[in-house]
Amino acid sequence: MSKQIAIDGPAGAGKSTIAKKVAKELGFIYVDTGAMYRAMALYMIKKGIKASEADKISATCGSADITIKHENGEQVVYLNGENVNGMIRTEEVGNMASASSVNGDVRKKLVELQQKLASETDVVMDGRDIGTVVLPDADVKVYLTASSKVRAERRFKELTAKGEQCDIEKIEQDIIERDYRDMHREISPLKQADDATLVDSSDMTIEEVADTIVGLYKDCGK
Ligand code: DC
């Protein structure tokens, strides 16, 4: 039986940085499920489909072939055979991913892919519904959060480091709106699983958060 660590939480809580670090320390594969929703969103944008066109999203998602490979320790997302890692980190794609991920057909397709990956190898998987829906029997479940202000500051630093012009207040507003959508959608809303450990990273270093999660795994006796 493969080993599974599930990390859920809102946008910008540091899930991917932490999950990558924990995976490296334990020798597991890191699976970023948000990247799959982003690849699906990119596909919809390329097809000219709008976030509000639920029927078109349902009808079209079946033809998006999304695959995950690990190359030199990095997750690479392929959309219909093309490496799209460099195209999915924009605010436009993130906002479309949040909107299109409310769609049941999109979720069904991607959840199946995520469960298959986790059944084949030891994983640290991050997302919004990993502990609640994708891996309900995960060995460790963490709900990682931080205040919207801290999350906006982190995102602002990331974007300005890449040379992108941005407004921190707009980023915080987008984060609050995205949280609301993710937490209030009908299917698989973002919420802490009953058996998940809450970790608030607002005043913690990356090392402290990663050590906490590795500690939870060691304590679980697997
Ligand atoms: O973690 P992220 O910002 O890359 O995710 C982009 C969007 O995808 C997010 O707003 C909600 C959605 N998502 C989801 O619904 N379920 C997941 N397991 C992961 C992401």
Q: Could you describe the 3D structure shown?
A:
The chain is of the alpha/beta class and 222 residues long. The chain folds into 2 domains: 1-28 and 124-222, P-loop containing nucleotide triphosphate hydrolases (Rossmann fold, 3-Layer(aba) Sandwich); 31-121, P-loop containing nucleotide triphosphate hydrolases (Rossmann fold, 3-Layer(aba) Sandwich). It is 50% helix and 17% strand. It contains 9 helices and 8 strands. The chain has helices at residues 15-26, 33-46, 54-61, 91-100, 104-120, 130-134, 148-161, 168-184, 206-219, and strands at residues 4-8, 29-32, 66-71, 74-79, 82-83, 123-127, 140-145, 197-200. The strands form 2 sheets. It has a 5-stranded parallel sheet, with helices on both faces. A hairpin with a 2-residue loop joins strand 3 (66-71) and strand 4. The longest helix is centred in the middle third of the chain and has 17 residues, at 104-120. The chain binds 2'-deoxycytidine-5'-monophosphate. Residues 11, 33-34, 37-38, 94, 97-98, 101, 127-129, 178, 182 line the site of 2'-deoxycytidine-5'-monophosphate.
Low-confidence stretches: none
Q: Roughly how much helix do the residues carry, as a percent range?
A: 40-55%
Bound small-molecule species: 2'-deoxycytidine-5'-monophosphate
Global shape? globular
Number of helices: 9
Number of domains: 2
What is the arithmetic mean of pLDDT?
94
Round the Cα radius of gyration to an integer and report it: 17 Å
Structural class: alpha/beta
| Named CATH architecture of the largest domain | 3-Layer(aba) Sandwich
